[in-house]
Amino acid sequence: MTIGYSVEGSTDRALLKGLHQRWCPEADLIEGRFRGSTGQSLRREYRKICDEFEARGVEVMVFLTDADAGEWREVQKNARSKFPSGQLTRAIHGVADRNVECWICANPEWLAKLLDESNPEQFMCSDPKGVFERALRIDRDDRKEKEIAELTRLAPLGSWLKNASFEDFYEQVRSHSLQRRCHVENLRETRS
């Protein structure tokens, strides 16, 4: 199987690589072009990305974006409305409720223990991006993508389901996995 993905940043890319390693390591993972943020050209960007993925034999397309200050369901609805309708059945549209750090920090006790941080409460905020980057020592020169991918691969993802936007993303991934040659664990059985 060939999975294409388009993200907005390095943490998003690292998270997807960690999920790929965990759920479908035998699949080919192809990075698509970086998605811009202008609503005016979003429809054209999607068409170009889909055309490139089709030319490369991509079977499933994963688009991951942040809602930032918006409501994630509205951001997702807007993205899907601008997506080529003939490609929707092959697409997964993940929208983190603020940013993917909200997903990564969904189990603050586990994360604090992994990162040797004494205060798990620091990750319990509406926007944990800064706290997460400080704890992982992320900077402009070292985005820590390997570490984030490994963290994601090892994470107790069942506990991430308490985040509604991750739960929606997971349900899309699981639905696609049941139709293809990919085993995605049933997180509802491992929720903790």
Please tell me about this protein's structure.
This protein has 192 residues and is an alpha/beta fold. It has a single domain (2-190), classed as Rossmann fold. It has helices spanning 10-23, 42-55, 72-81, 100-104, 108-114, 129-136, 145-154, 164-179, 187-190, and strands at 2-6, 28-31, 60-66, 91-96. The chain has a four-stranded parallel β-sheet with strand order 2-1-3-4, with helices on both faces. Strand 3 (60-66), helix 3 (72-81) and strand 4 form a beta-alpha-beta unit.
Question: What's the short version?
Answer:
This protein has 192 residues and is of the alpha/beta class. The protein contains nine helices and four strands, in the order βαβαβαβαααααα.
Characteristic key phrases:
single chain; 192 residues; alpha/beta; Rossmann fold; 4-stranded parallel beta sheet; 4 strands
